[in-house]
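U., I forgot to send this yesterday:
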Amino acid sequence: MDEHMDHRVHKLSFLNRGVGLITGVKEVRSFNEEEIILDTDMGLLSIRGTELHVTKLNLEKGEVEVDGTVDSLVYTNTGGHKESGSLFGKLFK
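Result:
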């Protein structure tokens, strides 16, 4: 029952494809001016665009604020990254 209490609401809120607030974030995997990758409660979220910046980060609350020009938001399964790593591991054994 405690597992359900820890589950946070995942929400995306963007203003004019620029300033955005994302909740339900577990971790910021990587970021640069063209892509921000977030591990969220709903899977990996890739935010692509130009002049992207993480302006506020509060992982205790699971909140990330970004700004820049957002071109796309894409979700992928969280397991995809691990499977890719396993494949590389098998290749280099």
